[in-house]
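Can't paste images in this forum, so I'm doing it all in text. The chain is below; anyone willing to post the predicted structure tokens underneath?
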Amino acid sequence: MANILIVDDHPDNRNLLLSLLRYGGHELSEAADGAEALALVRRERFDLVVTDVLMPRVDGYELVRRLRADTQVAQPRIIFVTATYFEDEAATLARACGVRHFMLKPIEPQTFLDLVAAVLAEPVPAADVSQASEQVVDEHLRLLTDKLHRHVAQLEQLNRELDQRVAERTRELQAANR
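Text version of the structure:
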């Protein structure tokens, strides 16, 4: 039996992972973001942290960077489970942070449970301040910025489509009123 922390800003995602792991008899805790997770990890020893990447306040990369840099904290194993942006770059950045296990949502339950079992069988990592390099931080910011730009472009496209629909409906109403 392991002590596992699930970190995700979406309650449905947390509940799914908690439900899957509950059958294994694990001790389970949950956090809505990395800041909450950091507070829990500083109070309690976890064997494994399963975390989303993109979350408010403190995201998954920053969570891991802070955990690995804190020699006062028992170092848990980490799995990223995320609906991520730029899969290859995100996995590379995860490895640079010291996270070797990365699973994309939507997860396949048995694959997730198999991964958890395999990770729990691995040795516990040691704290390593070198993994918190400036290059990792810069790459993380670049990925976040790229995702933000992509979402802004999508919103701009949706606004253009909405403007076209409003103009069409206005013309239809004007024609009907005549």
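The CA atoms of residues 96 and 178 lie 66 Å apart. The mean pLDDT is 84.
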